[in-house]
Hints:
By secondary structure, the protein is α+β, with helices and mostly antiparallel strands. The chain has helices at residues 3-12, 23-33, 38-43, 47-62, 107-115, 126-133, 136-147, 162-165, 184-194, 196-224; strands at residues 64-67, 71-73, 85-90, 94-102, 158-160, 173-175, 238-240, 248-251. Helix 2 crosses helix 4.
Amino acid sequence: HWRVGQQSCIDLHGDYEYKLWTDASSREFIASEYPWFLDTFDNYGLPIQRADAIRYFVLAHFGGVYIDLDDGCNRRLDPLLSYYAWVRRTIPTGISNDAMGAVPQHPFFLRVIEELQSYNRNWQLPYITVMYSTGPLFLSVIWKEYIGEGQNEESRVRVLMPDEYNKHAWSFFTHHRGSSWHGKDAMFIFWMGRHWMLITALGFLIAGIVGICLWWVYGRMMLLGTPKGQSKARRLPFWRRPSQKDYELVDRHEV
């Protein structure tokens, strides 16, 4: 199902050089050009992390346009070549890494490859680990830091808006069924995102039930802790005011 998108880009750009990066060619490239990263590259726990990482190194080294296999081309990408670097906007992470472009040695992608090792952590859930170590969330964090520092024209990163990306006749890309690396944890996270109102309501309901149960248990414990034959309450002193100046204690005992 990916061949349609892949072929659409090849057909529209016959004058472009096309290269498909495989597991073998990716590792060979890292070993040859960036040996300081090879240990991290080899020890990524999931193949998608290596697939994420290689795209950043390729863009930083060669420049050009990177496109995921589940993205197709709706029109020629020549207008994007006028930008020194570009990424696309996505919700909710910020920017995505499925379609990107840059000139060689662009400072943003140099920053990205420099930060990969420091973000290489295991967050237990595979989806969160991928997203925050090499995926779109990682890229978005670096991008937020980068744009906050201020850039000149050559170091700026152009951001494609969603309508420029796809869904219109004038959009640059088409999107095909992908996300093959998503596991059950990702499906569960997406389900929670679609049903957040139901989950919020259930959370309040459960919290209320737990609160009532704790209050009942607390009341029972206080009752059981009261000595036998002793009242649960004490009568407070009752004062009578017989005159303007005098007060008299008329009753002070326990019942």
